[in-house]
Design brief:
about 200 residues, minor pseudopilin epsh fold, 8 helices, about 10% strand, globular
Length: about 200
């Protein structure tokens, strides 16, 4: 059974960039709903008790009758679990270490990377995510629809932003680009670096 992970920071600690009310609802209501629905889908099946990454890496192995539920709700659980870890109070700035070097090498500079990533996030049609991924060691920016995750395509997520309206609407209304711009102030690069080193 999947469980709601505890946050490593308070709901109000990403202010003023992400407001307390959004964080509270996003974590306790939206994320919890994904978990409840994913648990319901796999209850009593051989998939109950397996790590969510394992299920998402091999969606074709999931019976068709529950595959969409696992993809959507299991994906929602996995994406949000990563998302909370990828942020923190007093973070932001730019990455140092191996990841910082790899970003500069791939995209020309950190600023160019931010521009491309932000563009991908702002232009994602409807609901979804923008990601920095490792594809066999090579960095890529991509976006996914709904709660899809790059691991279902054999890629490793290193950084991701939720651009579903529930992630920003209370504070930013329809100004998704403003939310994306401010979100860089809470990115925990140390966490992304740890994923990159793995």
């Amino acid at each position: 059974m999947f469980e709601l992970p505890k946050l490593k920071y308070a709901y109000n600690s990403l202010e003023p960039y992400i407001d307390e009310m959004t964080m509270t609802i996003h974590h306790t209501k939206h994320h919890q709903a994904y978990i409840d629905n994913a648990n319901k889908a796999i209850a009593g099946t051989p998939f109950d008790g397996k790590p969510v990454e394992e299920l998402l890496k091999n969606l074709n192995a999931i019976p068709e009758s529950i595959r969409n539920a696992v993809r959507n709700h299991g994906g929602g659980h996995y994406n949000h679990t990563l998302f909370w870890e990828m942020m923190g109070p007093g973070k932001g700035g730019s990455p140092s270490g191996e990841l910082g070097g790899a970003i500069n090498e791939k995209f020309g500079s950190f600023d160019k990377f931010v521009e491309q990533f932000s563009d991908s996030a702002a232009k994602r049609f409807g609901s979804g995510w923008a990601w920095l991924v490792s594809n066999n060691g090579s960095l890529e920016i991509m976006s996914t629809a709904n709660q899809d995750n790059p691991i279902s395509e054999g890629k490793t997520p290193l950084l991701g932003i939720d651009v579903w309206e529930h992630a920003y609407y209370l504070r930013y209304m329809n100004k998704r680009a403003d939310y994306v711009k401010n979100w860089w102030n809470v990115v925990d690069w140390a966490y992304s670096e740890s994923l990159f080193k793995k």
